[in-house]
Structure to design on (288 residues):
């Protein structure tokens, strides 16, 4: 599974390394100790993460503008999200609050182009229980995510679960951002079916 | 497993259907983790299916599913990165 995750996020991590040198200017209100790419002190991360869902601050209040700009630039070649096809047909692309978490398309595309991808390995890589992908899987590709309000997640989004951490990264270091996406904006994204090996009986 | 939706309530964001291999009825809700959107399936009996189809008692059941109080009825166990109700 780790090998597959490495494949999934290889592109994103390569991009992340490119921004290691970006100086994170400390916010005026609360100077932060440099710890990793976000420049956030672990205590600040813990404090924000502990806030109740819906009350967390806007990332611009604790992240440096240079860090945010460099982070969002990683999505300028497209933002992507995986979905089970049935979910999109029933409820549309966005979540109930209209937001959707996205990853850089190069990371998603590396995964689906891998000849080693099977349903069980993909389920494991996406953190899903076995058989979740017995139906069809699609990749939602947004060519110009800034047109959909590309931004750092605040942790108040409907899809922010207990694993969310401030700074636009998943616990394994891969990149994430948020867009606002609704049926009205359907023409702004592309739905790409993902061919998966039918490698087990349904 | 093969989940076939028979009825969808888009406004309240749930579906009723049948897993055709086992013949088990289910109620499903959409959930999302950081990488993927998918459905969670909760097993219900035929009488409950019919009752929910008429809209009777479904809101309380949905609230319990979203609050993870109905996990004993999940047809697939939660994954490593369980999604939030979406």
């Amino acid at each position: 599974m780790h090998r597959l995750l490495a494949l999934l996020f290889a592109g994103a991590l390569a991009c992340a390394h490119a921004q290691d040198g970006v100086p994170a200017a400390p916010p005026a209100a609360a100077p932060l100790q440099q710890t990793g790419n976000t420049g956030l002190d672990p205590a600040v991360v813990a404090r924000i993460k502990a806030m109740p869902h819906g009350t967390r601050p806007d990332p611009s209040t604790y992240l440096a503008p240079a860090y945010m700009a460099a982070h969002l630039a990683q999505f300028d070649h497209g933002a992507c999200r995986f979905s089970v096809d049935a979910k999109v047909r029933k409820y549309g692309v966005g979540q109930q609050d209209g937001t959707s978490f996205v990853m850089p398309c190069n990371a998603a595309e590396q995964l689906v182009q891998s000849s080693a991808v099977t349903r069980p390995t993909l389920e494991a890589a996406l953190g899903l229980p076995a058989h979740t992908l017995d139906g069809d899987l699609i990749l939602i590709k947004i060519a110009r995510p800034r047109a959909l309000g590309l931004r750092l997640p605040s942790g108040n989004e409907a899809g922010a679960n207990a694993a969310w951490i401030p700074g636009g990264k998943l616990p394994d270091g891969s990149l994430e951002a948020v867009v606002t996406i609704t049926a009205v904006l359907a023409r702004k994204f592309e739905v790409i079916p993902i061919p998966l090996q039918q490698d087990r009986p349904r | 497993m093969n989940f076939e939706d028979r009825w969808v309530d888009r406004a309240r964001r749930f579906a009723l259907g049948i897993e055709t291999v086992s013949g088990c009825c289910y109620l499903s809700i959409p959930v999302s983790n950081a990488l993927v959107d998918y459905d969670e399936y909760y097993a219900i009996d035929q009488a409950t299916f019919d009752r929910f189809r008429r809209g009777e008692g479904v809101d309380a059941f949905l609230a319990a599913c979203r609050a993870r109080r109905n996990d004993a009825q999940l047809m697939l166990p939660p994954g490593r990165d369980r999604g939030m109700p979406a």
